[in-house]
């Protein structure tokens, strides 16, 4: 049995080594590889906290392993880290981005690419140090020598150059429009650009804004329905008209007709308005509510529409509204009306939508609508080029399901023709003006490589190879990069776009500070107590009621806090989640499971190192596995070959969850659970040839599989790989610059699978090979003895029989192994239970009208279930007969 793990003792060993090695000294150049002598294999290891993290990361960085060369004969591969607009701490979404991107860049680096990953930051300089430390903790192998800030001199020059070029082409214009004006800041405030939940005074729960809800109004005279959309669904109680464009051919037949209010039957007319309605926006139909909406008020005056005020002074539905909602607070009515529309079958869905909100999040000042001059960028031609880039396959979007969203959003941009940008300083006509973060970030793939200067980096690394980011900013950031970079750089900014899912908690809820379910990735890596989590709530800006609610959530979900899981376990869990659709429900228990798996990898290496003697010389690159090696060795190498094929093909198609699953399955189920067990007899026996084959196979498996796993789990793989003995005349550097495994074609189809060739192995004439296979079967099945029978031998009685294939059956002696009487009673009880299931199902299938009325898929399901029941009955009856024969 392995010793109980004591991470405090292990950390003490590592600390002593750090201090002895001079890592704490400022003058230490730290160019030497970390030593292993202080952390012994006599202890069970868990990859907790930073036992190996910082020693390896600093060595990687100091040795220049993260740096790409501007001039190289290798093919280039480029990614940029999206500049996180954060307040200093990364959240799980950033951790997912870092895990996926680092996995990609490490894989490409190991496959022979001149791989460049550029870090970009978009935060106050005082917070950047904290952010970079967190990224380093996650193992992000960024080229820190190229780190840039979206407001540094080079990026600001790029923004100025872009503005001037676009202005000179007549694409940027200054217009006076209605804006949200903050009288404290004396500046325009950007519109909400996505769905947002905010705390509103007088409401216990937060209220959702930035949602465009679509619903249908039924029409008179059986003309069908018309769909409208609004960000304030509650105002439909005061609707008095539907406006359409007079030239819209779709609605010509509705001119002069009436719609019916679904809640009170009120009739209201269609009106034609060419100024208010844009044919190509939304459905081309606009609901008119003259009382609470300033724009609709003007339309109501023009068309002499009735004004229905539906709100009281304190924001509740008044008697002029529908009786079902009278007295409801404003935003509660919003939810109730949506549900009522759903029950009537009139709800048509909702999407994220820009909207103006009357409270400034920075000052809490009331926002005043004011006419102010603003800069606008005409995106019509650029939006068309962005659409063409997808249609012409210049850019591939992964997963493909988001291609339709790209086309829809870009088409809207093309139709709208103008997009507003507000927030980054630039000098125009000697006056200080602003462009927002999306403008500067939209230039990032160009500016990060030195544009507008003709640099070596720009020639070598542009366009980028892939952009990896969240699907939620496909339009806000990704599309803007394509439009601006293609316009200014002459080519698309990247060849592929990989969009990952959004992180949610294990209940599927959006992570929110007010719910207390936002998790700092560092807390997962290092662990944190419940008291520590609650303290973080108090350090935030939540009000007392939110602190109480969040605290209750923490007690329920993390009563013992979060256990320390380590970087590798967190990374692997996040990558394995990418198979989920557009949301990732993060469960800490899954991360803990991968932490335990790290411990299993450590123990597997511990076993192997005990079998590699001081004089053992591992095989070299030209090693060809001999044909007389034990069957288990042939089998594990065959399965490893298939795992390499599956992993590499999955990485190439950006199916990262499949890649992680393939690697995990080989390590867990083939190598640790089977091979290590069946190979043990060779190390304890007298057959030196078989022992040599077992040693070589064990070394090949570990060397290859650690390199296969490295992009997913960089720290444990480096630590374990460095411990392997090296072949003669081989200098072991870092696993991250070693060669990524590839399929060995000459053995790809040669080696056998375990089950299909088991009978062949047992029937071999070679006595030595036969004895080796028998050893493996006995070890794997934990048998005290094994006898091989031929078809001429008499059948054994009192045995449980399992048929492997047409040529092989396995007999297990039951005598003395089980209590026959108790087992017989257990089987008879199980037989009666399954018989009841059969009778119930048979009665249902023979019921009157079943054949005519039951749907086809139900009949098919019942037939499959009945066949399964019959098979189980037969199996149990055979087992009972076997016991009765004793």
UniProtKB/TrEMBL annotation:
Gene Ontology CC entries for this record: cytosol
Keyword Ligase in record: yes
Domain Valyl-tRNA synthetase tRNA-binding arm: 819-883
Coiled-coil regions listed: 817-886
Pfam families in UniProt: Anticodon_1, tRNA-synt_1, Val_tRNA-synt_C
Domain Aminoacyl-tRNA synthetase class Ia as annotated: residue spans: 56-122, 128-406, 408-586
Record EC number: 6.1.1.9
Protein name, per record: valine--tRNA ligase
Native source organism of the sequence: Artemisia annua (Sweet wormwood)
């Amino acid at each position: 049995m392995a010793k109980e793990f004591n991470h405090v003792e292990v950390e003490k060993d590592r600390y002593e080594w750090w201090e002895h090695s001079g890592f704490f000294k400022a003058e230490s150049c730290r160019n030497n590889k970390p030593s292993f002598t202080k952390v012994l294999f006599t202890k069970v290891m868990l990859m907790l906290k930073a036992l190996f993290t910082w020693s390896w990361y600093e060595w990687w960085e100091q040795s220049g392993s993260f740096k790409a060369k501007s001039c190289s004969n290798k093919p280039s591969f480029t990614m940029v880290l999206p500049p996180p607009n954060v307040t200093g701490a990364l959240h799980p979404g950033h951790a997912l981005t870092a895990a996926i991107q680092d996995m990609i860049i490490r894989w490409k680096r190991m496959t022979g690419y001149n791989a460049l990953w550029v870090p970009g930051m978009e935060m106050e300089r005082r917070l950047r140090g904290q952010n970079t430390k967190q990224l380093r903790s996650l193992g992000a192998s960024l080229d820190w020598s190229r780190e840039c800030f979206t407001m540094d001199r080079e990026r600001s020059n790029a923004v100025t150059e872009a503005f001037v070029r676009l202005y000179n082409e007549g694409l940027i214009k200054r217009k006076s429009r209605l804006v949200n004006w903050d009288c404290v800041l004396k500046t325009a405030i950007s519109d909400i650009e996505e769905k947002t939940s905010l705390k509103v005074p007088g409401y216990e729960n937060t209220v959702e804004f930035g949602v465009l809800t679509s619903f249908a109004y039924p029409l008179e005279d059986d003309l069908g329905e018309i769909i409208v959309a609004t960000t304030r669904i509650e105002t439909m109680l005061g609707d008095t008209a539907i406006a359409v464009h007079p030239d819209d051919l779709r609605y010509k037949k509705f001119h002069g007709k009436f719609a019916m209010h679904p809640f009170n039957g009120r009739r209201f007319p269609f009106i034609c308005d060419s100024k208010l309605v844009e044919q190509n926006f939304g459905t081309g139909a606009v609901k008119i509510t003259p009382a609470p909406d300033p724009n609709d008020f003007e339309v109501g005056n023009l068309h002499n529409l009735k004004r229905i005020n539906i709100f009281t002074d304190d924001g509740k539905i008044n008697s002029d509204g529908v009786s079902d909602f009278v007295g409801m607070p404003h935003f509660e009515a919003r939810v109730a009306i949506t549900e009522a529309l759903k029950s009537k079958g009139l709800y048509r869905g909702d999407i994220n939508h820009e909207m103006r909100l009357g409270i400034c999040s920075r000052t809490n000042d009331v926002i005043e609508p004011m006419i102010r001059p603003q800069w606008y960028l005409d995106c019509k031609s650029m939006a068309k080029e962005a659409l063409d880039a997808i249609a012409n396959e210049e850019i591939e979007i992964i997963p493909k399901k988001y291609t339709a969203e790209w086309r829809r959003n870009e088409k809207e941009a093309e139709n709208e023709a103008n997009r507003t940008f507000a927030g980054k300083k630039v000098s125009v006509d000697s006056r200080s003006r602003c462009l927002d973060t999306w403008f500067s970030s939209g230039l990032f793939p160009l500016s990060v490589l030195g544009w507008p200067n003709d640099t070596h980096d720009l020639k070598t690394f542009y366009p980028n190879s892939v952009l990896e980011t969240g699907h939620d900013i496909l339009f806000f950031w990704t599309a803007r990069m394509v439009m601006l970079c293609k316009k200014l750089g002459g080519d698309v900014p990247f060849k592929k776009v990989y969009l990952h899912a959004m992180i949610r908690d294990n209940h599927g809820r959006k992570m929110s500070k007010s719910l207390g379910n936002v998790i700092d990735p560092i807390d997962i890596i290092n662990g944190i107590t419940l008291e520590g989590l609650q303290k973080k709530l108090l350090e935030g800006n939540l009000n007392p009621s939110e602190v109480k609610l969040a605290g209750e959530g923490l007690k329920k979900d993390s009563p013992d806090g979060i256990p320390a899981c380590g970087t590798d376990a967190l990374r692997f869990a996040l990558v394995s989640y990418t198979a989920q659709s557009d949301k990732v429900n993060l469960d800490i228990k899954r991360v803990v499971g991968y932490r335990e798996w790290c411990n299993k990898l450590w123990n597997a290496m511990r076993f192997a190192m005990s079998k590699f003697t001081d004089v053992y010389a591992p095989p070299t690159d030209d090693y060809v596995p001999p044909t007389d090696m034990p069957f288990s060795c042939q089998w594990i190498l065959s399965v490893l070959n298939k795992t390499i094929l599956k992993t590499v093909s999955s990485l190439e198609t950006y199916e990262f969850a499949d890649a992680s699953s393939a690697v995990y399955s080989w390590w867990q189920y083939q190598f640790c659970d089977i091979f290590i067990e069946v190979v043990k007899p060779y190390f304890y026996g007298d057959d030196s040839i078989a022992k040599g084959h077992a040693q070589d196979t064990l070394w090949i498996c570990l060397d290859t599989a650690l390199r296969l796993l490295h992009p997913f789990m960089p720290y444990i793989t480096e630590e374990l790989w460095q411990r392997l003995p090296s072949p003669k005349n081989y200098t072991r550097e870092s696993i991250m610059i070693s060669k990524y495994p590839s399929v060995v074609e000459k053995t790809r189809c040669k080696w056998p699978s375990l089950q299909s060739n088991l009978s062949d192995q047992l029937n071999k004439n070679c006595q030595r090979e036969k004895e080796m296979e028998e050893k493996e079967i006995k070890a794997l099945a934990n048998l005290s003895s094994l006898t091989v029978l031929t078809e001429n031998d008499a059948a054994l009685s009192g045995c449980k029989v399992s048929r492997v294939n047409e040529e092989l059956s396995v007999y297990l002696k039951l005598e003395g192994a089980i209590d026959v009487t108790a087992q017989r009673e257990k089987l008879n009880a199980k037989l009666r239970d399954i018989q009841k299931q059969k009778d119930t199902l048979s009665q249902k299938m023979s019921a009157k009208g079943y054949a005519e009325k039951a749907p086809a898929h139900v009949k098919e399901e019942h037939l499959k279930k009945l066949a399964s029941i019959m098979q189980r009955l037969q199996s149990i009856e055979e087992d009972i007969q076997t016991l009765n024969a004793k």
